[in-house]
């Protein structure tokens, strides 16, 4: 599994639970699982639980070439490590945001990773009246659909103020980081970025998300 974020961890746990004799390896670009948005304590906690499930971790490395699923054998990482006799390679890292059209505004509007540079008002620097929200913005936070509501609570009033010729008073100060990462049905960790940062263990991850990965809740929210 290429990518040790929440998706990669959850997928590894699901595979190990359904097929306990299957060898699973996570290749992750950072020194710990998840990203540095989250505290070291949580990342270390999840790493220990992943290893306890017999999942192999290769950190600070990448898989650059994804072989044909029908003809996978050995997989070689960027640093030359060989994962032998692989049956399947799964991409579980984030993709580049679809922001190429914003380049029409001129040079310097995007970061090297393709995210849109914004001021705390979520307006683009040097482009009055142009706002951005969602996963495309360059903000040090985990990309989650949940945060889009917080973005829009800043963008909408500021956009209306701009149209009225008034100063923009709403600023985005970030959102509280929250995540639940199950490792199979019975293990995992949850994190709430309040107070000193609250980390909850297996029982919480299992109760909240481990049983069905919130599929039933998502289905109902989409009226499906």
TrEMBL record:
InterPro entries assigned: FAD/NAD-bd_sf, FAD/NAD-binding_dom
One Gene Ontology CC term in the entry: cytoplasm
Record keywords, A-Z: FAD, Flavoprotein, Oxidoreductase
Chaperone in keyword set: no
MF terms in GO: electron-transferring-flavoprotein dehydrogenase activity; flavin adenine dinucleotide binding
Pfam family, one: Pyr_redox_2
Residues in FAD/NAD(P)-binding domain copies: 1-141
Family the entry assigns: Belongs to the FAD-dependent oxidoreductase family.
Protein's name according to its UniProt entry: FAD/NAD(P)-binding domain-containing protein
Native species: Phanerochaete carnosa (strain HHB-10118-sp) (White-rot fungus)
């Amino acid at each position: 599994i290429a990518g040790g974020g929440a998706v990669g961890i959850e997928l590894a746990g699901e595979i190990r639970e359904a097929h306990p004799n299957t060898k699973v390896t996570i290749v992750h670009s950072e020194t710990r699982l998840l990203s540095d948005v989250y505290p070291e304590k949580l990342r270390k906690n999840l790493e220990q639980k992943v290893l306890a499930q017999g999942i192999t971790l290769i950190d600070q490395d990448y898989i650059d070439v994804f072989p044909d699923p029908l003809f996978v054998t050995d997989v070689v990482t960027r640093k030359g490590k060989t994962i032998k006799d692989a049956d399947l390679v799964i991409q579980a890292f984030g993709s580049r945001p679809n922001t190429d059209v914003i380049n029409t505004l001129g040079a310097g509007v995007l970061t090297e990773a393709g995210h849109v540079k914004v001021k705390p008002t979520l307006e683009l620097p040097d482009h009055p009246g142009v706002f951005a929200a969602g996963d495309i913005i360059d903000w040090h936070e985990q990309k989650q659909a949940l945060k889009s509501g917080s973005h829009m609570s800043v963008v909408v009033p500021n956009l209306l103020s701009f149209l009225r010729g008034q100063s923009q008073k709403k600023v985005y100060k970030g959102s509280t980081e929250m995540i639940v990462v199950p490792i199979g049905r019975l293990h995992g960790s949850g994190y709430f970025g309040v107070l000193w940062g609250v980390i909850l263990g297996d029982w919480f991850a299992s109760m909240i998300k481990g049983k069905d990965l919130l599929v039933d809740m998502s289905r109902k929210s989409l009226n499906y």
